[in-house]
């Protein structure tokens, strides 16, 4: 990719039923992820984003969607949790996306303040977001849910333990039990917990969660838990410990009522009853590393949570009975080689892949791939194992996406996007405005005609991927190697403001995307371009 030293190494700038109640059309324009700047008590300076579909149920459900370390609200919105957004459009529920702002963008699930109801830090800020949404959108208080990935899954456990009277259910992808990550020395990483070495009885885990809301005697949320057997970031034993905790809190046996395999490599166990919404459900994914959810998993989470309906809630259930101790969860299937972690808490034990190593310091590690090589198993195995950010080598460039003026072709670009997202990767778009690899029709233009063609191209490509690709290289290689000044390109000759116009066009086309400038030969201060 033309000596692309920026590459992606530090890309931190991843059953349908009919509606049964009235959906109310909002007067605003098409729904989009929107930031809310004033929402109440926010001791740790979180950002709040909200998604309100165009048609909101008269008494909508509310989902709190919590991102992974190094993640953002927009990345989760357009990546792992896109199926939740699609379901919100169909069933009219609201989604709140908290966004961590501290270095590494992990959520606080470790400090004493965060592990006590009303104690401060991130949980308090998130609950302010919940209260804001409930009061503003007439949310059904019996249908408030939480779901998260990695750091967000840990927060899912914490929120459900601290606010059991608020959340009806949770779905946690690759988490740890509530309270497991606690530290007392101010550190943000608990290696014993992450390594799967914090082993307790079900009663001990339950008591730890109950201590977060002292004096509470009511029922606890239903909980769905997902984990890969080859997870080395938040080790697989945490899955069994979570099951211990939530079966105890829900007062049901640790012996599963049923065990099945809804998809290849999945082992699903249900506790308490065999309904589609049991008190506790665990899904173990054979051979998978720290890279959930995979394609199709969110649909199961939607069903478990009860988001695939607009039916209002029933009165709250009575307190749960005392738990019954019994054997630990069944052993998982024999693991096979796992893909690399796509996201997770920073720090901890040494990483085993390039992607995991980058994540330790709050970065992604990415690569450019070619659609023509997606049939090569060696190629895709390495890409899947080592990298957690993908960009198209050439398939999203101008000549590939708009070979004829006004006629867009995303066939090969979509192949790369689909492969990446199906394997739990984020996608970085490259590139929208570049002097090179222009199709012949664009090379023949100049002046205002070329400027307008550039604008139209940016709008066309970003409209196709709006909400799907969280990062874009808008302008590529606009500076000259030898002089360090602007490159004498046809785009430069349309006027000195062409770069600004390109970025303003991209911002208007997808307000949630992070916009980047890309170049090469910029890592040596003696070079003119640097």
Structural description of this entry:
The strands form 3 sheets. This protein has a 10-stranded mixed beta sheet, with helices on both faces. Strands 13-14-15-16-17 form a 5-stranded parallel beta sheet. A two-stranded antiparallel ribbon has the order 1-4. Helix 6 (202-210) crosses helix 7 (237-249) and helix 14 (447-464) runs parallel beside helix 15 (498-509). With 530 residues, the chain is of the alpha/beta class. It has 2 domains: 43-305, Alpha/Beta hydrolase fold, catalytic domain (Rossmann fold, 3-Layer(aba) Sandwich), CATH 3.40.50; 365-518, Glycosidases (TIM Barrel), CATH 3.20.20. The longest helix is centred in the C-terminal third of the chain and has 18 residues, at 447-464. The protein has helices at 73-78, 82-91, 121-137, 151-162, 191-194, 202-210, 237-249, 297-305, 354-360, 377-386, 398-401, 411-422, 440-443, 447-464, 498-509; strands at 23-25, 33-36, 47-51, 55-57, 62-66, 94-99, 144-149, 169-173, 222-228, 258-260, 266-271, 280-285, 366-369, 389-392, 426-434, 471-476, 514-518. Strand 16 (471-476), helix 15 and strand 17 form a beta-alpha-beta unit. 49% of the residues are buried. It is elongated. The chain starts with 22 loop residues before the first strand and ends in a 12-residue tail after the last strand. Helices cover 28% and strands 16% of the residues.
What are the SSEs and their pairings?
Layout lengths: L22 E3 L7 E4 L10 E5 L3 E3 L4 E5 L6 H6 L3 H10 L2 E6 L21 H17 L6 E6 L1 H12 L6 E5 L17 H4 L7 H9 L11 E7 L8 H13 L8 E3 L5 E6 L8 E6 L11 H9 L48 H7 L5 E4 L7 H10 L2 E4 L5 H4 L9 H12 L3 E9 L5 H4 L3 H18 L6 E6 L21 H12 L4 E5 L12
Parallel strand pairs: 5-6, 5-7, 7-8, 8-9, 9-12, 13-14, 14-15, 15-16, 16-17
Antiparallel strand pairs: 1-4, 2-3, 3-6, 10-11, 11-12
Helix pairs in contact: 6-7, 14-15
